[in-house]
Amino acid sequence: MSQTADFTAITERMIKRIRATDAMGLNGFPHYADTTTGEWTTTPDGFWTGGFWPGVLWHAFDQTGDSALRDSAARWTERLSARTESRSVFKGFLFHFAGATGDMLAGDPKARELALAAAQSLQRAFHPSIGLIPLGKEAEEAHTVGDNDTNIDGLSASLVMAWAGVRTGDTVLLQTAVDHALRSGDYCVRDDDSVCQSASFDGETGKLIRNYTHKGYSDASTWTRAQGWAMLGYSYLAGIDRENPRLLRMAERVSDWWIAHVPSDLIALWDFDAPEQPSTPRDTSGTAIAAASLLRLAHAHPDESRARSYRDFAERTVHALCAEVTPTEQGDTRPPGILTRGCFDKTREEATEAELIWGDYFLLESLRILSGTLDIERLYPRG
Length: 383
Ligand code: GLY
Hints:
The protein has twelve helices and six strands. It is mainly alpha-helical and 383 residues long. It has one domain: Alpha/alpha barrel (Glycosyltransferase). Bound molecules: glycine (GLY). The site of glycine has 5 residues, from loops.
C-alpha cells in the first residue's frame, strides 16, 4: 500500500472511532479513553481539553460531508459558551480548536462568535508591564499558582488571538498574541532550545524567579508536551505574521531541538529525560503535536529546501504514529481507530497509556494534510 493510501485508511479508521464516540451519547467532553474498552473519561465543562472533541468532529465533517457530524460539532462547541470568560490562559485550547476551527472548516457563525469572545477576553487578561497573559486563577492543573506564573502550554492563547486578530483586522489583538508568545519564550525556552514548562516571575518587575514544571519529570527536564506546545505556537504564528523573523527563528529552534533529540523510532517518551526502560511510557499525543507543528513550520518557511525537510520529518513521524492506531497487530480486538500510548499525566500516574483527545486531533489533522484532503491554508484565518 502507498503511504498516501495508508494515511487515507487510517483517517477512515479514526473517523469510525469518532462516530462511535459520538454515538455513545456522552454527558461530558471526552478527555481520555481506556484503549482496551474504548470507554471515555469525560469532563463536565471541557477542562482544557474539551475543544479538541468538537475539533475532531469539525474535521470529520469536513472529510466526509456528513451533516450529522457538523451538527454534533456545533452542539459541543456551543456547550463551551460558559467558558469564554474563564480566568484561564488555557481557554485558548478550547476556543481555537472548537471555535476558530469551526469557523475555518465549516463557516459556523456561533463557533466564530465564541472564539472571538474568548480572544477578546484573553486580550483583557494581558499584563502589559510584564508582556504576557498570566496563567490565571482558574488555570486547569495550575490554579494554585495563578497570576505571577506562566507556562508554555499557555501559547494556546496566542493561537486563538492571532486567528481573531487576522479575522477581524484588529492589529492590536494580533500583536498581543505575538507579544504573549515571545515573552513566554523568554521565560520558558532555554538557551539550548529545549523548553521548560513553567516559570514564576516578579509581578512588579517581571524578573524571572524560578523555572519549574507542572507535569514533567523534573524542573530541569524537557517534558515532551512542553516542547510540542512551543513548536505549535511559534510555527503557527510564523505562518501568520511572516514579517516577524523572531517567530520563525523560535519555531526553528524548538523544532530543530525535537528533531535532534526524539528517539530513532520517532515516538517520544513522555519526558525526554525520563529514565529509559521498557516500561517508560511514550507520549503519542506529544508526538502528534510535534508532527502537526512541523507541517505548519514547513508551510511558513520561506526556504524551500528547509520547508521540505520539515515536511518530510513530519511525514515520517505520522507514519510512525499510524502504527499506534488500533488494530496494531493481527487479532487485536480493541475498538478500531484509537491512537494508543498517549500519556496524560505521569507525575500523578493518571492515564499514562491512553487515548487522548488532543492526540487524536493532531494526528487526524496531519493525516488529512498529508493525504491531500485538507489544504493546510484552511487552518489559517482570512480577514
Ligand atoms: N496542560 C497541557 C498539557 O497537559 O499538555
